[in-house]
Amino acid sequence: VFTTVIDTDFEPAPDAKFGYTGDRFGPMIFRFVREGDELVLQQATGFAASIYHSGNGGHPVSTDNPERDHLHALYAERNEYMEMKRFPILDERDGCMVIPVSDWLEDDAYFGLLPYTAALRIGSRIEHRSRLLEVEHRKEQVIIRYNLMYAPMLIPGGSRDTTAWTVGVCLTLLPRERMQPVYADSRVGYFRIPAVREDPTGIYLEDASVIKKFRDSVTFCVYPGFPEHLLPPVRRAVDNWDRIFRKYGLDGGVRLLEPQPEDFETGKFRVDDARISWIKYNKAPGNSNAYGRVYTDVRTGETLCAYLGIFSGVDRTLDRWYLSQTGNIDPVPEDMYMAMFEMVATHEIGHTLGLEHNFYGSRRFTTEQLRDSALMARLSHGSSIMDYMRLNYAAMPEDGISMVDRVPVIGPYDEAAICWGYGDFLSSKERSEYAAWMFSTDSLRYIPQSIDDPLTQAEDLGSEPMRTAANCMLHLSRAIESYQSRAAAADTIAGTDAASLARKAAIMKALPDSAFVYSAVSSQYRQFVEHALMFIGGRPKMVESGGRTVSVPISSGIQEEAMDFIRKYVFDPPQWAAWIVDDDYVEYVKSRIMRNLSRAKEKSLTRENGAFDMSIEKDRLILEMDETFISVDAQIDSGAGLRNRPLPSTPVFRCKGRADITDTLYRLLSSPVIREKYGLLSVHGNIFDVAGYRKVDDGFILTLDLKYRYYPERPVVEMFPVAGTLPVKVSFHIRYNTPVRQDTVLKEEISLAVANTVPQFYRRQLKRAVRRYNRECGTAIVINETPGRIDAGCKAAVSFDVLGSGMSVYSVPDFFRLNIGADNIPDKRTIRHKFRMALDYLTESEIAVIP
């Protein structure tokens, strides 16, 4: 189910991404399942495990491995579909069923904009002013069109008026055969959705992801109203990607259709036909961007259709790149503009094919190579169009490199990535080997942007980014000097006669807007300073011989080069740039340098002689210590009318080395008691936004100032409560301790029921752990392999499901549950260790929580 905006009187904010005619939302993926005299509408919620085949109606295919069948049934029960509505079957005719849908078609959650009001910044639907217009039947489709009215959303930037929307909701049958998913590989940059992967034995499922991709080919259609003069670069952009499919013999390809007005009049094309992928031009001068969006089947990762939106304000971006990265203040030449527009369209089409940004793509060449006219005429100046790689600003006027050759095009990484994702002839093993080969080859390597990796920055260039930035500084200098000299020439014309005024007007008309010039130059200047700052204390990702990436400190020589760059352009700036570098900016740069250096120092903590250290790194709480047990006590100090209220569940866990306990704290702060008893629903923002900690004798005291989402009690029964936030102060006592086993443990026989769903692999490890525990501790734990149902009356039980990963224990007097999650599996030694800790709970020994 897709929803498309056909027409609207809504006026989006100048920089808004949504709110235009042609906007498409969705998909919601449903199926109907018969249960007796009803049809149940179920919505797909996630990845479909591989054991399920659409040829079997979505039901599990039985195998000769009952454990494997049960594992997939458990996964499907939780992760594949959820019930949404039930329809009574009114009649059956010729194998078809008749159900009442009038009420359903009026439900704004399915047939309207309710799920998307936040993105559109509109309020709720006005029912009495909304109506269904028509229902159109097309091949394997039903399109329902509506006139809808929505109230304003009273927030900054939201509409102040009631707005009218004509929308088309398209219900389209999906292919009976699901696309074979392609599992993601961290060495190739594709958008992905969460999934699971089955181990060869069928014992467990492990967390994985599959890529977003078209099944084979994609045909883009030009949306009505696209400027005619911009179609040639769009055609070339589409052909750039199709050429890869042709070159390597891949199934499918990328095509472009240009429907004519009569095609819409005859119904051959409909803007709300969900099978069509559109390329649309939005008139939005305030939005200087473009985007490629995919609409994915969450069961497999298949891209069902795509949307490429280009905003008219992109002209401003192209003008800025041309001025700041070539030093030329004249209008952009026609061939240069078309080449840059083609670059934008090519980049966004790459996104629709599934490709993520590859921020390593700009590091292909040295500065000398980037200034080689013969090389640049033959090759692009980077390995990937999917990098935020703009013009070749390393090139100088004397190098003889044409302007068009300074615009990036598709590179070798892009070709290799398309072959990897769309090469259906590759087996899983071959795909992994192909990814390894790509990663080991510098021009085919993919590395995403990282917060402290200076080698993966947006809009940097070359393997020597400080040198290329210095070249671009010359372009900026030339742009400023050229503008100022021409403006000064106009000022020297002192006459007030018509001829003098005409000459002065002609000079000023040929000049770009002064605010635009100074803004473009200053933003580019400061961006290069930001690039240099990243090298101070940075930790780039380096590739080891085995293909593994590791983060290592940047060399002192490169850091010195970065400091020289900063000294030259910030602390002792050239005269032409003095207006860019004011006192506030100098102080900002100094503080960034000190912060980067202190961050690098924090990463060098050591663990000697039982050292126990704590630090906050990139909004994560990190402990560093010798092997020991850590416990966390927590309480609400004040807020929401509470004082010194303990947070339930005190985690105790064993740590060695560096341990990230951020998620443990989050779990404490969102426990059921917090939500249900204290009425605090969820923490707003990052918990370390306002944090402090101090060392005490046995650990650390961490204090947090939080904001909780809160629903007050309803003052009037009919009034819907309005959510707000409340400030809450929380403190944690994080301490190390050595747990002491009780002198005696329970000696009477304890029956531990094991459900028949627990795989044999875990049963064997549990039996070994119990035998050893009984022998060492003198207990009498007896395993009872229960074939039937285990209800709440069972005092102690072990079960297996797919809720979460690892193991979890719940233990109160006379009630014990050990749940094994199927999402992933640790090694045997870790399993036995965790079983032993669980048995401590069962026997009431004072060794506590499993991590």
TrEMBL record:
<dbReference type="InterPro" id="IPR024079">
    <property type="entry name" value="MetalloPept_cat_dom_sf"/>
</dbReference>
<feature type="domain" description="EcxA zinc-binding">
    <location>
        <begin position="332"/>
        <end position="596"/>
    </location>
</feature>
<keyword id="KW-0645">Protease</keyword>
<keyword id="KW-0378">Hydrolase</keyword>
<protein>
    <submittedName>
        <fullName>Zinc-dependent metalloprotease</fullName>
    </submittedName>
</protein>
<dbReference type="Pfam" id="PF17148">
    <property type="entry name" value="DUF5117"/>
</dbReference>
<dbReference type="GO" id="GO:0008237">
    <property type="term" value="F:metallopeptidase activity"/>
</dbReference>
<dbReference type="InterPro" id="IPR033413">
    <property type="entry name" value="DUF5117"/>
</dbReference>
<dbReference type="InterPro" id="IPR032534">
    <property type="entry name" value="EcxA_zinc-bd"/>
</dbReference>
<feature type="domain" description="DUF5117">
    <location>
        <begin position="83"/>
        <end position="215"/>
    </location>
</feature>
<dbReference type="Pfam" id="PF16313">
    <property type="entry name" value="DUF4953"/>
</dbReference>
<keyword id="KW-0482">Metalloprotease</keyword>
